[in-house]
Amino acid sequence: MTAFPLNPLEEDFPGQHPENRDHAKSEAIVPDDEWLLRRQFAEDPEKGCELLFRRYYVNLCNHTIRFVHSREVAEDIVSEIFTTFWQNQTYRQVTTSYRAYLYKSVRHRAYNYLKWQVRFQHSAEEPVHLSESPSPHEVLQYSELHQKIELIIRELPAQCRRAYILKRVEGKKYDEIAQEMKISAKAVEALVSRALSRLRKELSAHWVLFIMLFFC
Amino acid sequence: MKESVIRLLLFDFFEGKTTSIQRKMIEEWLTEEPNQELFYRYLDEWESERPQFGPDKETALESFRSVLAGADKTDAYTPETEQERPLRKRQWLWLAAVISLVAVGLAFQKQILYKSLDSGPGKRVTHRLSEGTEVLLNANSRLLVPRFTFLGNAREVFLDGEAQFKVTHTRNNDRFVVKMGDRYRIEVLGTEFVAFSRARGKRVFLKEGKVKLGLPEGRQIYMKPGNLFVSGKNGSYKMTAPADTRPYTAWKEQTFYFNNTLLSDVALQISEQFGMQVRIADTLLAQRRIGGIYKADQVDDLLQILSELMQIEVIQKEDHIELAIPKP
Q1: Is residue A113 one of the residues assigned to a domain?
Q2: Which of A200, A212, B153, B191 has the fewest CB atoms in 10 Å of its CB?
Q3: Pick the residue with more confidence: B140 or B190?
Q4: Is Zinc among this UniProt entry's keywords (chain B) (predicted)?
Q5: With contacts defined as CB-CB under 8 Å, which chain A residues touch B204?
């Protein structure tokens, strides 16, 4: 064993739970934590929207990127949801918590984006219809969808996955990635398109089942 | 079902770790309307503990504020007309225009707000931030620093790679924050430390002062001078006070410090330092060890030393370097 493990991060430390583990445990949730938000909306919807944005923007982006695998797309989708929420005065009609509405909306929108991207039988012009109360099964399926995507990406060959992440998630240019990976831009392009077609193929297979359960 | 139980169950489900029987249980639980509320509450909680990336909230909020300010109330849609189908397409196009506008705004604002400092392969860069902090950026690293100090984020930087920080103490005790991705963050007032944030994990070595480390699960720990923090798998970590600190600071003098180090580790360090893939096909060779302090400005210097010292062959391939035992 080396005295100074220079790669200690790879190690699996058995039972390494430091003493100060419980230092700052995440606190329990507060019941009806949106009460203040509601009151703010009643008084001044503009302030309410801003507050809502501050509270949920980051988490919603983090949730959306699980589906769309692109920072920019995720941020756009979430910003767009907030924009329509304000412009259509959706806050007046929401019967659930704002949180539930926002999560349902971004999941639905992310799903539509993905569908369009995989070009699976539906076009983007299809009316974007959000069912008011998705069935429990539908609710769970959204989560299973992003898990499936993660799984597909995780099973890609290492080089392929790296190129895909740099291109899609980080939004880098082909020649930038080529430089970083020390391969030609053409090769990067090939790797990314291989990843995409794998995603497309596996999702389509998954989708037949998904859509059947979803829309029938 | 007890709330604490359902919380754990849902967290497992979000991770994809539930059995099909448990899934059925959740589905049944969800049939009660109020539970759907709870579902999203836990989803939100789960997400806030497992960030994927650092969305630029302030920039996005700026764009959203202009949406809030610019929205003409008379143009706001009325629910009756929206239900009519012929309008759907137009509305969709209009929406697309809004999205692309927001997107363009976001894309440019990011570049405007942050300046990227990159050190190329094998090169180190020193930089002085506007508020006085000195940064020595190791090779193959990137630091994002705010371009405008008046926006109030002058003391927040993003690190991908390795760097030493000499943080100045400001008069009004502003915190200096290093974000390392995966929700690891270092918070300090004034101190000297080395931060390492690469693909294989996070490492922080504190030389002087005191820092607060924010960990992914929202926990916070404090470090004392001489402490070394190393992140492990699944949010675990190890805090030690190493007797010899050279392994964590040797890079500053362009030196490599090996002490009974595996050749596979050496290869990894070369990759990190020079951005050059080094592979060892022979597993026996990968397990050989090496010691000593070597100065190397270029990747070839170090490879030359290794090849002579360990009697190995260095083969330059198209996109990587291979280390092998020479054939007789």
Answers
A1: yes
A2: A212
A3: B140
A4: no
A5: none
Asked, for residue A75, whether it belongs to a domain, the answer is yes
Average pLDDT over residues B78-102: 58
ipTM over 0.85: no
Residue type, A167: K
Contact of A89 with chain B, judged by CB distance below 8 Å, is answered with yes
Give residue A63's pLDDT: 93
Least confidently predicted of A129-143, B1-15, B54-68, B97-111: B97-111
Chosen domain end from A93, A119, A145: A119
What is chain B's mean pLDDT, rounded? 80
Copy the structure tokens of residue B139.
């090779």
Contacts of B9 (CB under 8 A, 6+ apart): B1, B18, B22, B25, B26
Domain span at A147: 134-216
Number of structural domains, chain A? 2
Residue where a domain stops, chosen among A87, A119, A151: A119
Q: Is residue A161 part of a domain?
A: yes
| The two three-digit tokens of residue A109, written as one number | 């929108």
**Cross-strand pairs, B222:** B212
Contact B57 A57 (CB under 8 A): yes
> A201 and A140 in one domain?
yes
Confidence check: pLDDT of B26 > 60: yes
Q: Is A71 on the interface with B (CB under 8 A)?
A: yes
Residues lower than pLDDT 50 in chain A: 1-30, 120-129, 212-216
Check A58 against B57: CB less than 8 A apart: yes
Nearest Cβ partner for A4 among B45, B220, B259: B259
Residue A129 covered by a domain: no
Burial of B261 (0-12, 13-18, 19+ CB in 10 A): buried
d(CA A67, CA A57): 16
A208 and A141, same domain (yes or no): yes
Same domain? For A171 and A209 the reply is: yes
Indicate which CATH number applies to the domain containing A169. Answer: 1.10.10.10
